[in-house]
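Form 7-S
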Amino acid sequence: MSTKKRILFIATEMSPYLELTEFAEVINKLAIKSNDGGLEVRCIMPRFGVINERRHRLHEVVRLSGINVSVDNDDYPLQIKVASLPNARLQVYFLENEDFFKRKQIFHDDEEKWFDDNALRTIFFCKGALETVKKFGWPPDIIHCSGWMTGLIPAYIKTAYKKEPVFGNSKVIFTIGENTFKDKLGGDFLKQAVINANVKDKDLEPFKEANNTALFRGGASYADAITFGAEKIDKKLTEEFAKVKGKKVVPFKGWDSDLTEYLELYNDLAGK
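Output:
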């Protein structure tokens, strides 16, 4: 039985698969450094249609197939594919669904129009990621969420999945990044985000503006520790989360940082 502490990265982007901001490279480095530092590492991200299956050698994980994720009273099948991170012995799991991730664009169409189902895609990814971890039967000590699309995960772990043994000892880190969209997730977002009876309307209060800042705010509000992952961050978020009583906060140290503070944070939270 492995006694290594386990860290799960749940990310919107990660090099070399998808690079939307510079933090994609940071997640790649953090996963490799954590692995080299003696942690057991797994990563989960969406399998957007622009991610080349052949080039990155993705293949289906049959034992994890057959999960249906219910969002807004509809069931969506979740396929899980896996690839080995180049130059590292660790696995990246990709969540795939034809309705949400098959298209060849990320969040906007070819005319730069915001997809009107981005709210559902976000909820599906957050719920799907947590259902995947349950199916793994792999209880993580640390869950590090990055990218606005992961914003609901810390809230779900503390509400919808509070009684799930697999998350019983998990500590959650959330990275606040640079705002990358000006649109809103729509008027139904908060209603759709209530994924089971353990999520109350008041739990989603930090997300009420349903925009980029709100997803970062919600993620950081429920996280056990917060990191800043960009130079340009919404001033409101900097003021709100630069110092939070009872939470460790790691400031942004530049893109060439050696990321030691992150490793210390992981070990500290995992009680190593």
